[in-house]
Amino acid sequence: MGNTSKSFTFETNLNSYFLKNNFIILIILLSITLGFSSCNTVKYVSENEYLLSKNTIYVNDKKNVDDEINDYIVQRPNQLVLGVPFPLHFYNIGNKNFEPDFEEWKNNHPNTSNFITKVFSEKQTKGLFNFKKSTHNWWLTNGEEPVILDTKKASQTVENLTSVYHNEGYFNVNVNYDVKFLKNKKAAVNYVVITDKPYKLDSITTNIESKVLDSIYMLSQKESLIKKGKQFRYSLFLAEQNRITALFRNSGIYRFNKNAILIDADTSNYKSNIDLIINDSIANVPFKVQKIQKINIYTDYTYNTKDNPIKDSIDYKGYLFLTQKNLRYNPKLLLNAVFIEPNDIYKDETRELTRKNLRRLNNFRTVDIKYNELENDFLEASIYLTPLKKYSIGISTELTHSNIRQLGISGKLSFLNRNIFKGSEILKFSVQGSFLDSKDAADNDKLLNAWEVGGDVSLELPRILFPFKPDKIIPKNMSPSTIFTVGTSLQKNIGLDKQKFTGIIDYSWESSNTKKHSFQLLNAQFIKNLNVNSYFNIYNSEFIEIQNIATNYFNEDISTENVIEFINSNIDSNFESTNPTEFTIAQNIKNRYNIITEDVLIPSAAYTFTYNNSENYKDTDFSFFRARFVSSGNLTTLLATNKDENNVKLLFNTPIAQYIRTDLEYKKFWNLSLENVLAFRSFLGIAIPYKNSNTIPFSRSYFIGGPNDLRAWKIYDLGPGTTKTGLEYNVGNLKFISSLEYRFKIINSVKGALFVDAGNIWDISNSNLTSSEAKFNGFKSLSDIAIGSGFGIRYDLSFILLRLDLGFKTYEPYLSNNKWFQHVNFKNNVYNFGISYPF
């Protein structure tokens, strides 16, 4: 929980001199930044040249704020990072004239040059020269050379802007540019756009020569994007051209393409008369509705063996399955991914849907779909499938580090069997093991003193496997799948040493390109603690607190073995009447002990809805929303009959966790400019125990802090509420976290970030043992939200991103006064090292 193999976090203890001189360090960093900003940015700007410092577009006397319009500027100033052209400064550190400057120095200082050659060998002197030369070249290569004002490019920008506004219907637009020469060999360019009035669409006529095309078009004429009164826009005509093309190609017109569509515009007096012309043929071949007569599916196609004879074939419901060996796929099941049907008209959408779903099976390296024209305008569809290897073995190793597990070396061996039941199913078996350096281990002087082993088996089916067919609710075009998973793991010398058993039945499908659904009919987990007697050795801060109570109020010296016995015997109502604070502390410790050491069975069901309008993994301007609803223990407690002395229902002599939980997460990304992104994330989670449970299982509770969360605090280090427990693991059943991060490029693959995180966890149970500071008490508890801020450095390796973030405690709600900026220094900051972005 909260400790993943891809996230690392640690907090440094710097030496006392460093701690006492935080102010000096900040002054140095500020001086470096100011020094860069005051550096000679025109070092390599020659006489009669000017460094382009700014572009501004004015549209009808107003400054343009549309980033899309700014994209048409041909020449842009050097990239700024927080207002400073760092890449240009990096470039200026290098010496473009290093070799001639060096030769000139040798000629002007012959004695010094000869002395250096005598002291060092000629080979060493040449090596030093090459080193300095390569250093200068590195700065020049990785920096950004100055952008010199080019009026030809300014003129080209004028042409671009004129064309853009023409395409938007401003046919009388006037665009000019003006250069302002600034001090220190710099210049700014102002582009002035006067648009005049836009032209509007007036009369719209259609001229469709083909009766077949005309009848299809008339059925969707109301959906036309070109309508009277709309502003003339070239993009509107392109969209209508694409709409008509898609309409015809999904209505059986296989030969149709957008070149057959002509749009003629006659403009005058700010009005445009449009004539839509659609030809009746291409290359004198008339357009016709064409049906698919034959469908061939080659299940073992490869380019190298494409000419080999077909040895096996099966005709199934109008589909001909062909193979050069034996047919390894069940035709009925494979057709769940095929949407091209015999005797159906040709459709682009079924072709793409078939390609997408066949690729989704993860059984084929390539999927190719081709059509051939037959007699009488019929079509033959051929689907060529190149299968992946049936069996594959994967081995991976990983080095991990966190504030919980100081060092870890893990390995994983996985075995994969594709198409195990001839229906494109994937069976995966994996075993993994880790050797860890745990602070909880009995012998913690040794390196890698703890270990963890586990294994799991999963079976993925590209369809919904259920007692009844849900095709009407979840049709096959929604890419349905079913995953069965069974797994177990064993930990030793990690916390209380746990053994876990997990079983999952997960159904997933996509209702659209942006909406995904997952329904876990079962997500059951059984957790057994194997080292309960070591609880107070591991959670030492709790033992110290109860030991102080025993010493100060009872004059007893207790051990870690008899803490609970001491609480049961001494912390009673009489003690509460005289020492209410200490009574609550002791009862909290006992209650926490019972929660963490309790063996628990969690039989839950969950539904997850995800919305993501990101177009691809490179998209930096999109929204993401996820809602997850979990219910645990309802059916199981209804069927269970065994109870313990506290009237808690048991299954396999283990308490059944009963609770409901809701998680809501929203993320939004704005692409501000080239490689400058503003990212926002907010998360709200609530978990409520009821009936058979008084608390949420520890593994299902919320925590806060760490490299992907509130980065100014370590994992489990904050909350709940305004409490400052000093405990190792703090959890709650209500969580809120929100983050705002500005990401920018510094130089080449080095990127930076500024961030602000805000959040906390609370307890929303009705327990009398929970202090009021830990509970959520409506709007006034919003003042409990902690705030952390900081900056980060990231190195992008293309295939992976390495991240180092420094978080500073900006607002600490648990402080009695002066909660702002009390510990914003390098003594209390938290370093977070991670892989990939935090969200």
TrEMBL record:
GO terms for CC? Answer: outer membrane
Recorded hits in InterPro entries, A to Z, give:
Bac_surfAg_D15, BamA/TamA_POTRA, D15-like
Would I find Signal among this entry's keywords? Answer: yes
The keyword Signal is annotated on this UniProt entry: yes
Q: Which residues form the POTRA domain?
A: 118-193
Q: Which residues form a coiled coil?
A: none
Keywords on record: Cell outer membrane, Membrane, Signal, Transmembrane
Origin: domain of life: Bacteria
Q: Where in the cell is it found?
A: Membrane
Q: Where is the major localization of this protein?
A: membrane
Question: Domain Bacterial surface antigen (D15): where?
Answer: 657-810
- Give the protein name, as stated in the record: Outer membrane protein assembly factor BamA
